[in-house]
Amino acid sequence: MSSIPSRSLVAALFVPEEGNYFQCRLCFLRRKQAQGTGYTNLVEHLVRYHASTYEDEFRSIQRRKGSLDSFVKGDDFSRNVYHWLDWIVMENRELSMCEKTKTRKYTHLKPLCVNTLKKHMFELESVVQASIKTRLQGKKLGFAVDAWTEDGTHFVAIIAITPSDKFLLCFSTLSNESDMSADATIDLFDYVLDTYGIDAATQLCFYVCDHASVNVAIARKTSVPMIGCASHRMNLAVHALMEEHTDLLDKVHRLMTKLNTIKNRHHLREADALMPVFRNATRRSSTFAMIDRYFRIYKKLDRVDDDLADFISTPRENVRLKALHEDLKNLESVSKKLQSATVSLLDVRVLFDHVMKHYPGTEAQLATTASLVKFLEFENGIVKVLASKERSLTRAERTAVSKLLKSGTSPSEEVRQETPIPKKRSFAEAALAEENETAPQNQVDLRWIPPTSNDVERLFSRAGVVYSRIRRSLNPMALETVMFLQYNRSLWDASCVAQAVENNRKKRRAETR
To answer: Is residue 157 assigned to a domain?
Structure first.
């Protein structure tokens, strides 16, 4: 149970109504609580339906200026809009779902016009933007940036990363899609900075993005250091290692293609074997997945088709494939570790050193002084601070990280939690084990700075689900709003929707005057 007094919780999170009813500010549901019987029923509602958010919401209310009377009290209509938005946005449904005959037949929600839904959805975006603007005031932050092209439309996504939170600020097209230069992207950055009231000189500390030349140009023109995505560097290193095994990989790929015919897939099912997996040129992990699948179905291939004999690797080639499979398994563990939420730049340095030690030839991509690293002093400075070696910072390194050191956060146990040591460590876990055991606790905590832009890549994966083949008519502005609300879901609730509805009502009244 919460340590916050029940009386305080009820006063902040419920609106009293007639007949001993109280309306929850978080979900608009009404609960009855007889006068003089305490607050058990109301607090039980918070614990059951808002266990992970109600304490944070209470504290945020306590920090707000003014009286609780300024809160917007939701009505039946705003409650209905909230439920439709929650359903459609979070379940990746089409916006017109609220108008479909079958939907209206099988739901208890009241009918809602799609144009009305869009109007309040766009206004809700403005409400959430104002909330983000308040939360970012005075905070050090960085931008995770990447671009995504789908169906001829080019989107740029910007995620703000602070020591405690992450917010999607922008998922937008460029004003002139024929111009995708650094200057055009900088114009978009300026718009984002103005929208959220971010002072680039004192707050914006870094970019995290891949190593495209346009990103390097943006960083240099704006005088903001760039951290090159560690996952991107790792993928390039794996690709370089695989070049000498191209003949073997091509042969296995041809075998998988042959197995993918209707006839052979039927034989695989009869042999109780798994289906073939292909190598994808843009997805490095697919190489490991293909080789791994090959060895899992290899013993059953003689029961599939005699014509496969020319495609199956020879015993000598299998020896090479097994060695390659072990190498790929090790490298895959590093790639997966880079995708974890707790990995830091110091961890990346340890992992890359471990890879270079066991796989010579990857120095061109993974070395500290690799040509891909464009802001060496900045990355070295962060690594030294993370390793509690601030005294060894050079003048250039100290200058590069000075903005981060001015008001650094103190170490927090919430940033990294101890994990139980598995019985058998992976290649990546073995590399990090010694570093985790001996690393001293640094005075300035920079572990919140991500070494990869994987958050943006995951956002694009979700956007691909929303912007599917049957939804290509979706306006880019509507897609941006949907992705914005989906990513920043923790920032809006029923009261925010009620505020958006009320804002639209005020606009309409002003227009009719």
So the answer is: yes
